[in-house]
Amino acid sequence: MLMALTREISPAFQSCQLTHLPRVPIDLERAREQHAAYEWALVDEGCTVRRLDAAPDMPDAVFIEDIAVVLDEGAVICRTGAESRRAETPGVIDALVRHGRPLQQIQAPGTLDGGDVLVIGREVFVGASARTNRAAIDQLSGMLAAVGYTVRAVPVRGCLHLKSAVTAVAPDTLVINRAWVPADAFRGQSLVDVDPQEPHAANALVIGDAVIYPASFPRTRERLERRGLRLRPVEVDELQKAEGAVTCCSLIFEM
Questions:
Q1: 248 has catalytic annotation
Q2: Residue 249 appears among annotated catalytic residues
Q3: CA–CA distances in Å: residue 43 to residues 1, 34, 113, 169, 224
Q4: What is the pLDDT of residues 106-121, one digit of tens each?
Q5: Multiple choice CATH, 2-12+24-254, 3.75.10.10, 1.10.645.10, 2.40.50.140, 3.30.230.10
Q6: Which residue of the set 35, 47, 159, 161 is catalytic?
C-alpha cells in the first residue's frame, strides 16, 4: 500500500519563503481547492492520504517533502535551509514514527531540503543549492551508504531545488531544464527537455504508471505524452506562486 503524507495550507501561506520568484497575491481559497484536488489525484492513483495540520506560523508547511527523505529502509529528517521552516519538523517526525519508519536526522551545520533529493534506483542525486549544503550532503552520503545507496552531489543554479530542474517520469527517463542543472550528471538516463517557453516544467511526480503533472505546462506535457507516458494533469498555479510544485506537496512511501 502506498501512503502519502500531505499537510494543509497554512492561513499564512501568503507569507511563504520566496527565492527566485517575485511575490504576487495568492488566492488562498483557490490554493486550498487545488491542493485538495491534488490529494484526490493521489487517491485515484492508489495512495492512502493522511493530511497533517499546519499552524499559522508555518506558511510553507504544505511543501512537506522538504522536511524528510523517505526510502524503503527508513527516513532521514532534514534540517531545512530556511530556519523559519524548522517548526514544521516535529509534526512530520511524529507522523513517520506512527507509520513505523526508522529515522535518522541531519545535524548542524548541515542544511538539507527534501526538494533537493532525487532518488533513481540505488542512486541518490542531491542538489547543492541555496538550501542544501556540503555538510548535509556528506552526512546523507554516510547514512545511505550503509544501506547500499550512492549519493551524488549536483550543482543547481537559477532555481530553488534540484527537483525544480529535473525529476523522473519513468524508471529510465527524466524531464530536465538544462539551464538549471548539468545534464551530464545523469548519464545513462533518457532526457526529455522542457519546452523553452516553460522553464519551470521539469517537476513531475510518478505514482504507479501515472505521472502527476502541472496543467500549466501543455507544451512539455505533449513532449512527455509522445514518449507514451500517462500524464494526469492537476491545477497547481496558486501553489506555483509560492515556488511549489507537484513533488513537494507529499511524502510518499510503501507501507
A1: yes
A2: no
A3: 11, 14, 25, 19, 23
A4: 999 999 999 999 999 9
A5: 3.75.10.10
A6: 161
